[in-house]
What we know:
Family (chains A, B, C, D): Belongs to the extradiol ring-cleavage dioxygenase family.
Bound molecules: calcium ion, fe (ii) ion
Oligomer: homotetramer
EC number (chains A, B, C, D): 1.13.11.39
Radius of gyration of chain A: 19 Å
Enzyme class (chains A, B, C, D): oxidoreductase
Protein name (chains A, B, C, D): Manganese-dependent 2,3-dihydroxybiphenyl 1,2-dioxygenase
Largest sheet of chain A: 10 strands, mixed
CATH topology of the largest domain in chain A: 2,3-Dihydroxybiphenyl 1,2-Dioxygenase, domain 1
CATH superfamily of the largest domain in chain A: 2,3-Dihydroxybiphenyl 1,2-Dioxygenase, domain 1
Amino acid sequence: MPIPAPNLYPDFNTIRLSHVCLNVSDLATSRKFYTDILGLQVSDESDSHIYLRAMEERGHHCVILQKSDQPGTVEVMGFKTFDEDDLDKAETYFRSKGRPTSWVERPYQGRTLLTSDNMGIPLEFYHKMDRLEPIHQKYALYRGVKPLRIDHFNCFSSNVDDSVAFYSDFGFRVTEYTEDDESKRLWAAWMHRKGGVHDMAFTNGKGPRMHHVAFWVPTPLNIIDLLDLMSTTGYVDNIERGPGRHGISNAFFLYILDPDGHRIEIYCSDYQTVDPDLEPIKWDLKDPQRQTLWGAAAPRSWFEHGTEFVGAEVKDSDLAATPIIAP
Amino acid sequence: MPIPAPNLYPDFNTIRLSHVCLNVSDLATSRKFYTDILGLQVSDESDSHIYLRAMEERGHHCVILQKSDQPGTVEVMGFKTFDEDDLDKAETYFRSKGRPTSWVERPYQGRTLLTSDNMGIPLEFYHKMDRLEPIHQKYALYRGVKPLRIDHFNCFSSNVDDSVAFYSDFGFRVTEYTEDDESKRLWAAWMHRKGGVHDMAFTNGKGPRMHHVAFWVPTPLNIIDLLDLMSTTGYVDNIERGPGRHGISNAFFLYILDPDGHRIEIYCSDYQTVDPDLEPIKWDLKDPQRQTLWGAAAPRSWFEHGTEFVGAEVKDSDLAATPIIAP
Amino acid sequence: MPIPAPNLYPDFNTIRLSHVCLNVSDLATSRKFYTDILGLQVSDESDSHIYLRAMEERGHHCVILQKSDQPGTVEVMGFKTFDEDDLDKAETYFRSKGRPTSWVERPYQGRTLLTSDNMGIPLEFYHKMDRLEPIHQKYALYRGVKPLRIDHFNCFSSNVDDSVAFYSDFGFRVTEYTEDDESKRLWAAWMHRKGGVHDMAFTNGKGPRMHHVAFWVPTPLNIIDLLDLMSTTGYVDNIERGPGRHGISNAFFLYILDPDGHRIEIYCSDYQTVDPDLEPIKWDLKDPQRQTLWGAAAPRSWFEHGTEFVGAEVKDSDLAATPIIAP
Amino acid sequence: MPIPAPNLYPDFNTIRLSHVCLNVSDLATSRKFYTDILGLQVSDESDSHIYLRAMEERGHHCVILQKSDQPGTVEVMGFKTFDEDDLDKAETYFRSKGRPTSWVERPYQGRTLLTSDNMGIPLEFYHKMDRLEPIHQKYALYRGVKPLRIDHFNCFSSNVDDSVAFYSDFGFRVTEYTEDDESKRLWAAWMHRKGGVHDMAFTNGKGPRMHHVAFWVPTPLNIIDLLDLMSTTGYVDNIERGPGRHGISNAFFLYILDPDGHRIEIYCSDYQTVDPDLEPIKWDLKDPQRQTLWGAAAPRSWFEHGTEFVGAEVKDSDLAATPIIAP
Ligand SMILES: [Ca+2]
Ligand SMILES: [Fe+2]
Ligand SMILES: [Fe+2]
Ligand SMILES: [Fe+2]
Ligand SMILES: [Fe+2]
């Protein structure tokens, strides 16, 4: 049995994923993609950074675009805690696990703890972020795919069993997972805090690398609208996979690539997972409907391409099991 | 300021609304409505009861239809706690508030605490319910409006300020509310535990009575399909209000009446509310877009009709403020 | 039997409705409504006129906004013939019916015959109009309700039997109609040339007046998007009726008013009517599902408000039958 | 210039495609597919035939399933004429082209002329077919993908230029076409009578063979529902290509295979083509967005698999140009 029992009383309370800071080569090029195509709203911008939020979010940012000489890398993934005290508890916790911790200054955020996970993924935790006026009923502002909120991260891990054990220990609960039938090891797992299928998922592969960051949209028709828009505005080559229905999570999805190669998923229609006794759903790696309920295999790039984290050394996975790949 | 500060550390942890037991006059008539029209799935049935669940639920039931000589009344509203211990803490809590408590036998549920709120609404709390196999990917079973899960309760209260204070004390957090501009009293409020706009809402009026129970569906098109189906299968008179977009909650909605007059809302597209520092949104009672963003007023029946709770005495409200009612 | 047999071999071949010229008080105000809200594309504009087309149209215009000191009147309704010869045949035909005819200069149109129907509605017929490049796959241009094409006209007539007889004689075929059960006279009728439910419809009332002009959109969700947009950009009072499913035509609809009171219908999902032996569907005036399949009655304004045609004298109808009107 | 000028005054008036007779091995197996998955309604059935219609059709049948010892072949493609006289004119016409003609008995049809096109595709023409009661507002009958009407045929032709010339001569008008840039020959063409993008299309390849028959559905969401249903009821291997947006026609599509290998397209959202002066749209064979606007290539089977017509000899095409095929 490869899935750890959920830790219902973790040392500190993380309520949800919050934001990601992406390193990009050209802010103007990225701005166009993230506002016209993805439809995110600019909260603030400077010569070096653009802060963006989705339509129902009141926190200041869910994406930070950072001009960088390491474009196509990820600076940090952010999470929000339930309370201010949880930050101190988190510091104690990560130290006890031998992880580096420091308090960092982040614009628009209160006290922010920077640390990293067992694979070296840079993580930051905060409780307070500047709150903005609601815009979810300002329909004239909706653009592109009409994103409502950031939904989840997905990362390549060179050892998914280890990654899942690490996050499970501080309260992430597994909702679905893929097991390699021969080795009985995990090939992928989806873990949540906020009551959806996941805040964080791991996929076997050269890691740690970000596989994708996902945004929630109202309906599958918004995804079809996005495809029509991208196809006729010069972004047809940025479409990587989909649209389709995931077997895992049952969500409707599309994967696209931003101008620096960061993969973005557009996602809707998964299910509620707040029950602490929710039984994880197991999938076999060789089940063709695991990736796409409708049977279409993912392309090779989807299994191989990812964007590295700043300062995190990448290792090959020792799990050689192979998924079904499109010819 | 009429809204109490949220109690982030309540005496016990309620994770979500769970189910409602509705008294009906004829099980066959109700079964047809709840399965063919609403599309709920029968988990079990006998001469006296039918247990139903929605498509993504794994708990045994979200609706119990109970044959009764008091049809058109509500037996009890059910909630799930985070842990087994929370039931004992709840018992202590409700006793301390002077509410009656007892442990009751409920088929398919573990230990169940029966109590009532300050207005007399019968409430039951449990932690364990029989878990069933997932059916959310058995698409051949989807019928009617394709309900995914129970979403919330809405009750008339003769004193919304008192109701909100009572639920706030055990951890329900206000997301939106309507204030009567003259008296500065609450006319309505929406309160959540599970991370959506509400698990429970209160509306000013003769109470306590159930105003409605709501089910979540995938998209607005499912609601349009339902209207077409009801209109052409003998249920056109069971359509009460909608479809429309709520100002409050921003959800897309439809209100219908079951064969015994219990009001059902079909609901989708509200927003995520897990942030503990989420600012409640205030609406004025005289704002015509409060009820329906598109400006259409609700009919008189919507403000007056409700179904009583078994054993709860109904009182008139002393707040005379009047909403906008369709001519 | 109030419906004339269709004339399958009319004297000239009209292929479809084409355009309408609306008199408005302020071009800038109207431009904003027709481009931002309706989403029509400007083909050309001057100090006195704005020419607009919908997204799949290649003809130069389907709406002409004309600055006028008679704002809120309709200048003319336009139709396209199958061939150039049909214009001459039309001239002969209308003269034989005692209607005035003249050849007029219309920018972007070839030879154009101006005449009027038996009630005085100004009609113009042309065969050639400037053709523009396709834009239906330029998805970045889609805005507002994303209109694809003009779909139909609807006019008040003081004698629907007479109007139907007149249009039937030159080839318009009735698809659905409403009969007053007592007088056995027509209360309303829908007539087509192009293979949909109608190019032209008539409703009993003070006439002739334009009741509305309708635009076809892709799906009901575009109509919901429009309602959200209008509600939050200052146009909430321009929403008159809907959304709903028509009993007649089975189309999904919304009625809105432009800044000068011209009524616009947003319309989708009717059915194909190319069969010459298609049986007209009869509805009773007292059938509550005739107007809206879901049972909601239309408001009084919908039966009383219309916009007059320039130069056409308005008469009361002598058919006193009354439809179902919302309280 | 490979496209012939449209013949606006053909010798006889065909109004639309009407039906197809498909040879199948097992009626029960096919019935399940065509009613539960496609959602067609049975008009009549016997030991040898099943007659089916779509939801808005009032003609008796659009599909005939015929039990046969040549399963996976097509018996005949049917078309409806404007008038009874058109049948006699058609007889004269096809004889003048050297095609065989005979008058055949067809249940539920009036006089029926059997002939074949220049490649040997068996065609039948009729004017009268039994008319059935409307069911488009009997929403309880809607099932599967909720098909509204038959939309078009698509056939492999060994010489698309010749096929287009043949159909053009009796009034089919080209709306879009694909040219091989080197040979300047047609690789594919779409031709209509009824005012949509096509009643009949031809694709270069071993022919004549039926490539597919298509059904019109209300919205892209019905196609997504179908995919979910097929994927979870044993039909995942019957999904061949899609969903996607066609470059050509701009329609949203899905291709599936019936139990005998007949290809079915589910189709919606093309555009109106009634203008006689509609300019055909030209596409280059090497344009990757021709097949799918979103850039995904069709699989090899889509270019190679088809079902033969009874009695029609199949030849290889002499046009060697190759489209873009998925790896
Ligand atoms: Ca191109
Ligand atoms: Fe994902
Ligand atoms: Fe509600
Ligand atoms: Fe209309
Ligand atoms: Fe096709």
